[in-house]
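A reminder from the course coordinator: this example appears on the midterm review sheet, so study it carefully.

Given structure:
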């Protein structure tokens, strides 16, 4: 099969920050592609962060616009798309596994179209491997050209060639793209794209382009229209939401945005993810003063040791991080705090790892995502010489998880006996006659109820029991 290569990824190009102006793109579907998907089905596999989930909703919206219908049976769909994650090797390994499975699907049904997108295609090595070893992939595209998907599908269908278009650019902002949202009561709202932090371990600034903020009015209008449609909760998305507005000239900050969104009438506002260096007093004030800003903060610390933080290029110290938490707890004493931690960063000594354990004890997190450092080709840390032995890394991860779990449970236990407002998501897999949802503090709550009409509503639940990962309660009449 011939390959149509419109563009290939280039990590060197992706690293550039040329201060080019951000272009606000509008979405319009070419009439020629309007019925390309009529009587056809699609399925999207989404991996990785909420940013990818939000992108999948746009891809889904575009496909529905073309006439495609979503299918819950992935392997019999006419179009299968893998929206991939490149953050760690194990995330990528899962995807290589599914790609292997899809070889058989293509063999049985040569007409199926298989597309791959997201962060992995933005890596040169991954795209080379897709092209050389996975001939059953029909379309490869990246994070910067989702709006071109109809054109790429049309090209694949009309020419029967493989189509590859991965653009390594600083990135623009796509407004007005149709979104096929997965939930009717909770919505992702992108407030910015890309990342300029360049933490030495992280691939995201290379795969997602420069930090660029959406216009505040576009965001506020999107939230107002969600409120009108009956949405209860929004999660504001960005790699570093606290840097919102820094690329713009109006001095309007993330804290300002929280105060303005609070006035839209949305019941719950959450956001992810935060960077400790940019986490500021106005945001703390929003947690204190805005009823809709939920009492939960996810503030990735990565390490508790100042030398490690320096080599990670995190630009804050253990002490500064603790000071932010102190100020936040002073303003909102019962706030739930969660974090991300990496163990076995190159050169991390046992003593330095102990500083991370010390920090966990100081903050007493309500939960933490814990990771073993994974070298990402093209990032500075992948070239650091003092990589840690896997056995040492695993041992540190286990010790960290044990400590984190202790506080995770304590963080749940503090709600026993209280009545919490739970936004109901679904029936629970935890047992017959149970439903589940989240409290304002982001505690997953299972409670006794069996009524589909409660989904999307906020109900009062008395918390009776705390497990490590969730709480159990009873519905208040
Ligand atoms: N190795 C391990 N963990 C990583 N993260 C990001 N890059 C890496 C890497 N190379 C973690 C960080 C980040 C979270 C989303 O993933 O903790 O906050
Ligand atoms: Fe999301 Fe990061 Fe994974 Fe990309 S690499 S999909 S931005 S978690």
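Designed residues:
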């Amino acid at each position: 099969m011939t390959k149509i290569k419109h563009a290939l990824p280039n990590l060197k190009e992706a690293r550039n920050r040329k201060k080019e102006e951000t272009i606000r793109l509008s979405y319009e579907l070419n009439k020629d592609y309007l019925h390309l998907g009529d009587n056809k089905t699609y399925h999207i596999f989404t991996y990785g962060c909420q940013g990818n989930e939000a992108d999948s909703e746009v891809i889904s919206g575009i496909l529905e616009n073309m006439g495609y219908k979503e299918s819950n049976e992935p392997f019999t769909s006419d179009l299968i798309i893998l929206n991939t994650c490149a953050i760690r090797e194990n995330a990528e390994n899962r995807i290589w596994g599914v790609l292997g499975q899809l070889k058989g699907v293509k063999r049985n049904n040569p007409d199926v179209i298989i597309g791959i997108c997201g962060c992995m295609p933005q890596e040169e090595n991954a795209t080379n491997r897709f092209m050389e070893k996975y001939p059953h992939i029909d379309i490869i595209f990246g994070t910067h050209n989702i709006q071109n998907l109809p054109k790429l599908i049309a090209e694949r269908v009309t020419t029967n060639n493989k189509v590859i278009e991965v653009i390594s650019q600083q990135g623009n902002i796509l407004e007005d793209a149709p979104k096929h949202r997965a939930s009717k009561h909770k919505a992702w709202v992108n407030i910015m794209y890309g990342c300029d932090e360049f933490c030495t371990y992280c691939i995201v600034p290379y795969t997602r382009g420069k930090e660029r903020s959406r216009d505040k009015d576009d965001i506020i209008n999107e939230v107002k229209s969600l409120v009108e449609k009956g949405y209860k909760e929004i999660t504001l998305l960005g790699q570093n939401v606290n840097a919102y507005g820094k690329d713009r000239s109006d001095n309007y900050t993330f804290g300002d945005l929280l105060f303005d969104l609070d006035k839209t009438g949305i019941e719950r506002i959450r956001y992810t993810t935060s960077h400790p260096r940019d986490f500021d007093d106005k945001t703390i004030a929003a947690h204190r003063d805005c009823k809709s800003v939920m009492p939960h903060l996810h503030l990735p610390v990565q390490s508790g040791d100042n030398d490690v933080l320096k080599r990670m290029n995190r630009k804050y110290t253990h002490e500064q991080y603790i000071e932010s938490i102190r100020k936040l707890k002073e303003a909102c004493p019962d706030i739930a705090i969660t974090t991300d931690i990496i163990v076995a960063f190159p050169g991390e000594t046992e003593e330095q790892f102990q500083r991370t354990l010390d920090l966990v004890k100081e903050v007493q997190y309500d939960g933490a995502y814990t990771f073993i450092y994974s070298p990402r080709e093209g990032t500075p840390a992948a070239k650091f010489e003092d990589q840690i032995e896997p056995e040492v890394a695993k041992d540190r991860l286990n010790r960290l998880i044990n400590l984190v779990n202790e506080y995770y449970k304590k963080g749940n236990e503090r709600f026993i006996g209280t009545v919490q407002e739970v936004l109901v998501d679904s029936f629970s897999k935890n047992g017959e006659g149970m439903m589940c949802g989240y409290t304002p503090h982001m505690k997953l709550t299972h409670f006794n109820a069996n009524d589909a009409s409660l989904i999307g509503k906020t109900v009062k639940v008395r918390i009776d029991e705390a497990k490590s990962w969730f709480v159990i309660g009873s519905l208040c009449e």
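The chain has three domains: 3-169, 173-412, 419-475. The radius of gyration is 23 Å.
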